[in-house]
Specification:
- Helix 11 runs parallel beside helix 14, helix 18 packs across helix 20 and helix 28 runs antiparallel to helix 30.
- Strands 5, 6, 7, 8, 9 and 10 form a six-stranded antiparallel β-sheet that branches. The chain has a two-stranded antiparallel ribbon with strand order 1-2.
- A hairpin with a 2-residue loop joins strand 9 and strand 10.
- The longest helix has 71 residues.
- 59% of the residues lie in helices and 5% in strands.
- The protein is elongated and about 185 Å long.
- The two termini are 100 Å apart.
- With 792 residues, the chain is mainly alpha-helical.
Length: 792
């Protein structure tokens, strides 16, 4: 833009011829690469506007021109050096390429070049020349069908490093065969390609200076013309005064537009339409104005964009605030609702607090309980969230302590059960709803009962309680089993009752005690079975000592031992029977006399009472060894007598069968012994003579070392139903013991199978379990599932 206004100020009014001359001069200046002599600079200084700003512009332009000239000379010197180095490298590598030559050598080297065609193939297999010869080529002639093509190889020279293709008219092909033959034949005239790089540069400089000298007079003549300068205001005034003449003149007036890199001639009427195309951009007239207008437009657009962004931001903020208002309103409503609920809950808690301060009687304590139950019912979230159980504990604890302060366990073991049952749901974490689990850090219900009850129970159980009279503690435990916390109940039974039982068992003497051990010991088995197992060896040892002087005719041993059959393990029970009972029964059978005429059955009945204690197999072994030998001998003697009455013998035989139980008679080994007697009776009836049978009683054999000891001294095939249930319970690690209370159902003893009450009907071979108040027949698998469900 500044260049354009400078040209307009200096140009004033110019004719078309002047404009054309100025354009030519400008063009010659461009062709001469901006070279200006000192004389021309002095003449140009005279035409400058007489102002300080114009002088500064001229000084700056001169400085830039000087710097440009120095830079151009430096580049020219560097280019000449690179070209010279390239020429030297080409000369050094000239012999490395076959068929290359220089024009300076003239036509004298052409013949040698023709001879050297394909000489490089001495280093290869020569496939190129062989192919050319097969196609009709002869060495020294031209290419093509008529040998009219080129006859020498192309010669090249290396382009200097970093030089672009075609720069400064550099020729890489120094012997182009396509050139005219006239230039090849003219050996005396040197072309530009045959000249040295320095000669080429000097020739170009001389041609440039010649062109400048030819244009000197023309440019000076243009500068010597007197120019008239007019301002824009003067031109506008002249246009207003001479509107008509100016209109006519401007129609013919041509103006030189020098605002761009190249001057352009435009008509005055079309000046406003003129466009100056610059490198990379399009400019219009009055660029400063257009620039200012563009700045104004850009600023306005920027302001509009900023305002639009601000409006959008304000709208987003408004939307965020609206949503936040909705959220906060919901929060406020929730807080108001919570405050209302808290206020209502507080009113109930204050009422509970009033009841708690005046809680001296059972009725007042019941009112306190109902108040806290109402709080939990209406406001569970507030009760559990604010841990009001601690406040409820503080209200109930004084009354509970006062209630158990003078408590007599023997008179009222169930004291407080009914009135404290609701407090378990209020204070125990075990009964807290799932959504409030983990709120209670401690068991407030246990804290309510621990100190008042243990302070009374500990001295009573430890020193005053007689374990042979377990009713008081048993009634207490059974009454509180579903009310007292499990941890507290376990502490009472294991820390107080168990040590007392252990001491009492140590003091127990079977021969001196009037109360059998099982009467006061077995009721604790359901609760302390695993802990009481440590006392079993001591109890068996006491049994062994007491049975040392026992006689089989004394039925007290049977009463003493029978309840322990299902308590001790099978191997321990079998060992006890084999060591203490079986020898006494053998002595009793040894004293038995078989007299058909006057048979005394008391010794036999005494032995038969131990049938269930020894088991069928062990008991039959006892009979085989100590009874059937005498019995067969007496029968043989009777049948061989002269006046034997077979009918009487038959009645005698039938009478003996009625002595044995059905379970015993159904055993295979028992039938074998009875069949021996029948065979002798049949022989006597046939009159063939009675032969004394030789039936050897089986002797007990010791088990092999690698054999697993049997759990019970009886064959598995002859196990009773009770024994099968016991084995099944042991296999699944469950208890199968008589009921602690010793109750019966339909004349059958009640057993506990893993917590399930069952009765075993041996006659019907069935098992009945107490399920939902009814005795229902069940299988062993069903009984196991029921026991596991109760255990979980």
């Amino acid at each position: 833009g500044g260049g354009g206004f400078g040209g307009f100020a200096r140009g004033g009014t110019m004719t078309a011829d002047d404009a054309m001359r100025g354009t030519d001069a400008n063009g010659s200046d461009d062709q001469s690469d901006g070279a200006v002599s000192e004389e021309e600079e002095e003449e140009e200084d005279e035409d400058l506007l007489p102002s300080t700003f114009g002088q500064r512009l001229v000084a700056g332009a001169a400085q830039r021109a000087k710097m440009a000239e120095e830079e151009r000379k430096a580049k020219a010197a560097k280019r000449r050096a690179e070209e010279k180095a390239a020429r030297a490298r080409n000369k050094d590598n000239e012999d490395a390429f076959a068929g290359t030559s220089s024009r300076r050598d003239g036509g004298g080297r052409n013949s040698r070049a023709n001879d050297d065609v394909g000489s490089f193939e001495k280093h290869t297999k020569g496939i190129g020349m062989k192919l050319l010869e097969k196609m009709g080529y002869k060495k020294g002639e031209g290419l093509g069908k008529g040998a009219s093509g080129i006859s020498r190889a192309l010669e090249t020279q290396l382009r200097p490093k970093n030089m672009g293709m075609g720069f400064n008219n550099f020729k890489e092909n120094v012997n182009d065969p396509t050139r005219s033959s006239k230039r090849e034949d003219d050996e005396g005239e040197a072309s530009e390609d045959d000249m040295d790089v320095d000669d080429i540069t000097r020739a170009r400089d001389e041609a440039k200076r010649a062109r400048e000298q030819s244009m000197w007079k023309k440019r000076n003549e243009l500068r010597r013309q007197k120019r008239e300068y007019k301002t824009a205001e003067e031109l506008l005034a002249e246009e207003q005064e001479n509107a008509s003449s100016v209109q006519t003149t401007t129609n013919k007036l041509n103006i030189i537009d020098m605002r761009g890199a190249h001057a352009t001639v435009v008509n005055a009427n079309e000046l406003h339409k003129a466009r100056v195309v610059r490198a990379g951009e399009e400019d219009i007239m009055l660029p400063e104005l257009q620039h200012n207008l563009k700045l104004v437009v850009d600023l306005a657009e920027s302001d509009i964009t900023k305002l639009d962004g601000k409006i959008r931001s304000e709208k987003d903020t408004q939307e965020i605030l609206r949503r936040e208002k909705i959220r906060l309103s919901k929060v406020a409503e929730a807080h108001d609702e919570l405050a209302a609920r808290t206020k209502s809950a507080l009113a109930l808690v204050e009422m509970c607090n009033t009841h708690g301060k005046a809680c001296d009687t059972a009725e007042q304590f019941d009112a306190l309980t109902q108040s806290w139950m109402e709080v939990v019912k209406q406001f569970p979230k507030e009760y559990y969230g604010h841990r009001l159980n601690r406040l409820a504990l503080a209200h109930a604890a004084p009354y509970v302590r006062a209630m158990y302060k003078s408590w007599d366990l023997s008179k009222d073991p169930t004291l407080g059960v009914d009135i404290l049952r609701p407090w378990r749901s209020l204070l125990s974490p075990e009964l807290v709803p799932d959504e409030y689990k983990g709120v209670f850090e401690d068991d407030s219900y246990e804290d309510l009962l621990r100190d008042p009850m243990l302070s009374r129970l500990r001295p009573i159980i430890s020193s005053k309680w007689d374990p042979t009279k377990p009713e008081d503690i048993l009634n207490f435990v059974q009454a509180w089993s579903d009310v007292m916390p499990e941890a507290l109940m376990r502490e009472i039974t294991h820390a107080l009752v168990l040590p007392r039982l252990q001491r009492r068992v140590g003091e127990w003497e079977p021969t001196k005690e009037r109360v059998a051990l099982h009467v006061w010991f077995h009721p604790w088995l359901p609760m302390l079975h695993k802990n009481l197992k440590d006392l079993y060896p001591s109890i068996r040892q006491k049994f062994t000592v007491s049975l040392a002087e026992w006689e089989a005719s004394d039925s007290s041993a049977l009463t003493l031992l029978k309840p322990w059959q299902r308590v001790f393990e099978a191997k321990d029970w079998s060992s006890l029977m084999r060591r203490c009972v079986t020898p006494k029964l053998e002595d009793a059978l040894a004293m038995l006399q078989i007299n058909p005429s006057n048979q005394v059955l008391d010794p036999v009945r005494t032995v038969l009472k131990w049938e269930s204690m020894l088991g069928p197999s062990a008991f039959i072994t006892l009979l085989e060894q100590h009874f059937f030998r005498k019995w067969h001998a007496a029968l043989h003697k009777w049948l061989t007598a002269s006046n034997v009455d077979l009918d009487e013998v038959a009645q005698w035989y039938i009478g003996w069968k009625t002595v044995f139980s059905e379970e015993l008679l159904s055993h295979e080994r028992m039938r074998v012994q009875l069949n021996v007697a029948l065979d002798m009776m049949n022989q006597a009836a046939a009159g063939e003579g009675v032969v004394m049978p030789n039936v050897a009683a089986p002797q007990p054999t010791a088990p092999l070392a690698d054999e697993r000891p049997v759990p019970h001294p009886m064959d598995e095939s002859t196990m009773s139903l009770k024994e099968m249930i016991e084995e099944f319970a042991n296999a699944h690690e469950l208890e199968f013991i008589p009921s602690a209370s010793g109750r019966r159902h339909d004349g059958l003893a009640v057993y506990v199978f893993g917590g399930v009450s069952v009765v075993v009907d041996t006659a019907r071979e069935s098992i009945r379990a107490l399920i939902d108040g009814d005795w229902t027949p069940v299988s062993l698998d069903q009984l196991l599932d029921r026991a596991r469900a109760i255990k979980r």
